[in-house]
Design a protein that fits this description.
six-stranded antiparallel beta sheet; alpha/beta; 22% strand; 613 residues; binds 6-O-phosphono-alpha-D-glucopyranose
Length: 613
């Protein structure tokens, strides 16, 4: 959830840390801090609020050194304030810690340490870690051993980075479980540490990912990795290819707007290399899917959180319709605790932009322990969800910075469509004509997305109309029911307007009671197999005095006669219509929030990567 950066080398650590944190601010942004070893002492600067506050603080009161760590926080224990911001120093001032995760037994540890005379300076769970390290230091030899001893006391999942003024030649980092990814970036005579790759990509492409229960001792010259049990680990250096320029805002006001507009490119890349238009076939080599495996698959479970779960719901319709394999979609945090019935003939497919969402990773592990094949559709290259899967599809969207997910929603829609066709093909359950038609339709996707984007000005007009509403109801049906969920989620996430997504047929069983002139209804009614049913939903809403904003297909002559406003969609093959339906909904939410002057990219209380349960 939180972002972590570390540096050791000949350069000034402060700007490197601040820059790295800037790229991680999407992980948490209610407070930030850094600690740098300056003339033999650890100097800490930290404050509540966004990173800009920390930068201002560092400008007023500069700090320089060659070893340092930084942190951007998403509060779990203790309100966002300067005293709760990381890094946390121990009582001697010689050891400092940043942490991502939750110390589940922190109350017990805090009591134990307090009884020994430790004075706590914050309300965080993290602070126990630094005191535990200090306590172990008095008994053990050196920081690495002390960290190992302290970490053995923690319950929960963690990423921890620490250094000591008494051992200025090293930074120690560890990972336990899935809450805190730790990546070590290898430079020439300098080393970098981060919770996530964007923080260090401008410095190096050679990285080592820590696995759970591994600890790295990082010096200027190199890195040594051991398990927390003390066994040496022969690690692999990986080369990553992400372009840091892609993570800049460019001409756009917000990352979210940029990312909405990037969908033509990201969808082109999603299809590129995977589709053989000549043969009418799909290739997803990283999935490791054999014809035998495809035929043996009796059931698919899609697990995900948030926006990714909505993509999964579209996937269910696609896979059941095209490949005739039964699919269940589960919110990952539910799946892991409901003792699902899965076996070796089940496939569990996780969808995750970050590949680090704790609930999703835990659900993957649950599936694996029950013998299922585990796949993932994931954006962040090298992330845990990619690494622990038996096969994966990489989203090809490039870094997504805006907390509200956009391009990482439409890419998996297309991935799931391709997966459905591939499964059907390998199971021998699709005739050649249908397969070729479905594959051919993929050609249209980037252009259709572009045509949706061209209509941004029309969507903005509707945004002005909705600017001051307090509630909104989104209705969709069939393959576009998840579009209603996703449209509503986008609006509530960034504009703070209460919005509900509902299966349109359910409206009469409850939400209809809410409809009046103050509850606008956004109806997703493209020309898909549920179109006529949607027309009657519009009539029902109008009959109760509702204001209806309808998404309709170009050329529709009925909807303009009954809806108050129409947002036009280009004609799209129905199985791909969730791609074109959601783009105006993304733009609508974006413009409402931007017109309200809100912090679109970093909405309150949210974080992009949710690495706590
Ligand atoms: C957070 C983000 C959402 C995202 C969800 C799942 O809640 O704010 O935008 O959909 O996590 O994240 P993932 O990285 O697993 O797709």
């Amino acid at each position: 959830m939180c972002g972590i950066v570390g540096y050791i080398g000949p350069r000034d650590a402060t700007p490197i840390i601040l820059n790295g944190l800037k790229r991680l601010e999407y992980r948490g942004y209610d407070s930030a801090g850094l600690a740098v070893l300056e003339n033999g002492h650890i100097a800490v600067r930290r404050d509540a609020g966004k990173l800009a506050r920390l930068s201002a603080l560092v400008e007023e009161s500069p700090v320089h050194g060659h070893v340092g760590i930084g942190h951007t926080r998403w509060a779990t224990h203790g309100e966002p304030s300067a005293r709760n911001a990381h890094p946390h120093l121990g009582m001697t001032g010689d050891v400092v810690v940043v942490h991502n995760g939750i110390v589940e037994n922190f109350l017990e540890l805090r009591e134990e340490l307090s009884a020994e005379g430790v004075v706590f300076n914050s309300d965080t769970d993290t602070e126990v870690i630094v005191h535990l390290i200090e306590r172990c230091l008095s008994r053990e030899t050196g920081l690495a051993e002390a960290a190992r001893c302290a970490l053995s006391r923690l319950r929960g999942a963690h990423g921890v980075v620490t250094f000591s003024s008494k051992e200025p030649d090293k930074i120690v980092a560890a990972r336990i479980g899935n809450a805190g990814g730790v990546v070590v970036g290898l430079g020439d005579g300098e080393m970098f540490l981060a919770s996530d790759m964007p923080a260090i990509l401008e410095h190096t492409r050679s990285v080592v990912f820590l696995e759970s229960r591994q600890m790295a001792v990082v010096t200027r010259e190199g890195v040594e990795i051991k398990t927390l049990e003390g066994d040496a680990v022969a690690y692999q250096v990986q080369s990553v290819a992400w372009d840091p320029i892609a993570a800049e805002k460019g001409e756009y006001r917000h990352f979210m707007q940029k990312e909405i507009h990037e969908q033509v490119r990201s969808l082109t890349d999603t299809i590129g290399g995977r589709v053989d238009f000549e043969d009418g076939r799909i290739h997803l080599p990283e999935l490791n899917l054999t014809p035998e495996k495809a035929r043996r698959t009796r059931k698919l479970f899609i697990i995900a959180c948030g926006t990714a779960a909505h993509a999964g719901m579209v996937g269910k319709v696609l896979i059941e319709h095209i490949a005739r394999v039964p699919v269940e979609v589960d919110i990952a945090s539910e799946f892991r605790y409901r003792d699902p019935i899965i076996d070796e003939d089940s496939v569990v497919l996780a969808i995750s932009q970050s590949g680090e969402t704790a609930d999703t990773l835990a659900a993957m592990e649950e599936a694996r322990s029950k013998g299922a094949t585990v796949w993932s559709i994931v954006n962040v290259i090298g992330s845990q969800a990619m690494r622990i899967a038996n096969g994966y599809i990489s989203m090809q969207t490039g870094p997504e910075i805006g907390v509200a997910s956009t391009k990482a929603y439409t890419a998996p829609l297309v991935d799931l469509y391709m997966l459905a066709v591939l499964l059907a093909d390998l199971r021998g359950g699709i005739d050649e004509r249908t397969r070729r038609r479905l594959v051919n339709d993929l050609r249209l996707v980037p252009d259709l997305a572009g045509r949706c984007l061209d209509r941004e000005a029309d969507v903005e007009k509707v945004a002005r109309f909705l600017l001051n509403v307090s509630h909104c109801l989104y209705l969709g049906r069939g393959i576009n029911m998840p579009s209603a969920y996703e449209g509503a989620l986008k609006l509530k996430e960034i504009s703070y307007i209460h919005a509900e997504g509902y299966p349109a047929g359910e409206m009469k069983h409850g939400p209809i009671a809410l409809i009046d002139r103050d509850m606008p209804v956004i109806v997703i009614a493209p020309r898909d197999p549920w179109y006529e049913k949607m027309l009657s939903q519009i009539e029902q809403a109008k009959a109760r005095g509702g204001i209806v904003i309808a998404l309709a297909t170009d050329g529709d002559e009925l909807i303009p006669g009954i809806a108050d406003h129409v947002i036009w969609l280009p004609e799209t093959p129905w199985m791909l219509s969730p791609v074109t339906a959601v783009i105006p909904l993304q733009m609508l939410a974006y413009h409402i929030a931007a017109l309200r002057g809100l912090d679109v990219d970093q909405p309150r209380n949210l974080a992009k990567s949710v690495t706590v349960e």
